[in-house]
Amino acid sequence: MDVRSASGRFLGTGLYNPHSLIAVRLLEGRVESLEGYLSERLEAAIAMRERLGSNETALRLVHSEADGLPGVVLDRYGDYLSLQITTRAMEAHLPTLLDLLSERLSPRGIRVDRGVRARETEGLPVGEDQHVGEVPESLSIPFGEGELSFPFRQGQKTGLFLDQKDNMKALAPRIGGGRLLDAFSYVGGWSRAVTAANPRTRPIGVDGSGTAISFYRRNNPTGEGVDADFFSWGETARSAGRRFDTVVLDPPAFIKSRRLVKEGIEGYHKAFRLGLSLVGDGGVFVACSCSALLSWEDFFGVLRAVFRKDGRPGRLFYTGRASWDHPRILAMPELDYLKCAAFYVGDRTGP
């Protein structure tokens, strides 16, 4: 359908879904053939990554609306692809997308993630993943001077959280060398990056997924992996007087919809306050949020409140967003979803 402004100016072709809270998804320009459009936009997304000179094994190749393909997320892990579709029109053209990917990239296997809850908002079923070709249980990718292993066939979302890789690269040389708490650790990417930068680091990862912790232990053989709910484990650790030189708190999205913004902000406040209480004086606190509906203003508002209640000063020395292969368009602030902030934590009388 054509999308026009109130004055009648043509804005673009839209994908209409009366069953979704977002009734129209805007494409780029006037689209006569969706099949042709898919081919053009896929090629353009890949060309952008190639133009920017990436030789990374793990890479986001398509980032939804930012690449003109609403509801399509595509990650590459070497010879394997992980595809996620959350819009009805793109789901209807899944066979076309799979053919295009096979022709352009010649992967050994493609995993189509059907488990993400965002599909429900479009009236799409949530169920078992679809596998095309060879889809192994796990994969390993180059990570620093070593490797990082993760569950692929049954992994969370597209397999790894590639949006944090630039933040890990920037912070790892600065925050290691002591006791590191990696909260909501998943497979231990933060621990692996910091330990690789400073082998004296003593990491401990806490995550509520037994599968994730089994991979954490594989990726961090000198660390400790704890299969536990962070809130329960953290309260016990705080009461026991445990403190860490660095705490990285990278939780899942607490805000799933606009009606849950207040509840989600309360969740971040609880998590950040507990995480900060486990940082020793002179330590580092890294706080992250991947909730698109949490604004930067509210993110920092929560952190200001947490530091005020803690009673220690926090010196912000780093802020980060999603990695470079997760592009944004200025007209859609929701794409600026990942927030990462690192603080030097003083004491109650010092700097």
Automatic annotation (TrEMBL):
Its main location: cytoplasm. CDD domains: AdoMet_MTases, RlmI_M_like. Pfam families: PUA_3. Keywords: Cytoplasm, Transferase. It is found in: Cytoplasm. InterPro entries: PUA_sf, RlmI-like_PUA, SAM-dependent_MTases_sf. The keyword Transferase applies. Residues 2-27 form the RlmI-like PUA domain. GO terms for molecular function: RNA binding. The keyword Transferase applies. It comes from the Bacteria. This is RlmI-like PUA domain-containing protein. It comes from Leptospirillum ferrodiazotrophum.
